[in-house]
Amino acid sequence: MAQITLIEAVTQALAYEMKHDDSVVVLGEDVGVNGGVFRATQGLQEKYGELRVIDTPLDETTIAGLTVGLAVQGMKPVAEAQFEGFIYPMMEQIACHAARMRNRTRGRLTVPAVWRAPWGGGIRAPEHHSEANEHLFTNIPGLRVVLPSSPARAYGLLLAAIRDPDPVIFFEPKRIYRQYKEEVPDDGEALPLDVCFVLRDGTDVTLVTWGAQVKESLEAADELAKQGISAEVIDVATLTPLDFDTIAESVQKTGRCVIVHEAPKTAGFGAEIAARIAEECLYDLLAPVERVTGPDTHIPLFRLEMKYLPSVERIVDAAKRTLAAS
Fold first, then answer.
1. Which pick of 55, 56, 107, 233 has the fewest CB atoms within 10 Å?
2. Residues 267 and 148 in one domain
3. Taking the model in full, what pTM does it have?
């Protein structure tokens, strides 16, 4: 079995669904002839034609509206925003129509659509190409927000997102698009949505994270282990609906929690997780919850970009503070 990268896993999942379901179509800027800005859709138009892999005008509002229209008429569109920062013009259609359609029509119509977007920093991109604003979508009822962190989870979660009868925002951490490979069988097996993945068992502190920061969190757990500290690592994967039970079970075991994300700290999704822990696990805590995040500012250009993102050192320091406080 060949080993593939995360971006190749995305392509593999799209190709599998298009082969087995004629209602799946892909649309977006340059997704056809060029195969997308990161080549996620490379080769799909040659295989499935211009009617199923559609190069659209440079107009995110139109892409989003067309996606809603296709979905309510029985298709399963997968739309691409070239970068997460380009998704803002799509929000009116996503929030006001896609997310509300099931409720508005009392279940008569649904929107089985996926909006894909390369997400996050770390690739030396210019302004509006490095945002991590997943929290803007977690506050919209009716949406699923999914963030894979490995090739296998990208493949399985994208299959599940396309098959879901309701709209899904699928953010792809572009910093790790080609960072490493793993074996991913092209067997059409979806992974469950709305489930956190426990990637490493531990007893002293819980590290909760998602997207590209899973890599740093696992490396931080390795570093903590060298110092005799056992860290459990949880990949949230589906932010909304949140599988809080898995997080709560871990916090009840370890008594300590560090939440890691690259979005700004204020009102980031980590704040919601911290609030839930305070509401439901307060008496299990041995120390205050720590958050390791991006600062409350725009992500800088490349000279300072990696200083903005959570680092292994910052995660380790936060974990050690939770042990020192107890």
1. 107
2. no
3. 0.96
Boundaries of domain holding 242: 197-325
Tell me the DSSP string of 271-302: HHHHHHHHHHSGGG-SS--EEEEE-SSPPP-H
- 152 φ, ψ to 5°? -65, -40
Same domain, 39 and 148: yes
Q: Are residues 32 and 137 in the same domain?
A: yes
Same domain, 209 and 179: no
According to the model, what pLDDT value does residue 1 have? 72
Distance between CA 11 and CA 82 in Å, rounded?
Answer: 15
Closest CA to 91 of 110, 108, 67, 71: 67
Instruction: Output phi, psi for 169, to 5 deg.
Output: -95, 120
- Domain for residue 301, yes or no? yes
129 assigned to active site: yes
The band of 302, judged by pLDDT with boundaries at 50, 70 and 90, is confident
Which member of 129, 135, 261, 298 is catalytic?
A: 129
Q: How far apart are CA 285 and CA 214, in angstroms?
A: 23
76-134: pLDDT as tens digits: 999 999 999 999 999 999 999 999 999 999 999 999 999 999 999 999 988 889 999 99
Q: What pLDDT was estimated at residue 2? A: 81
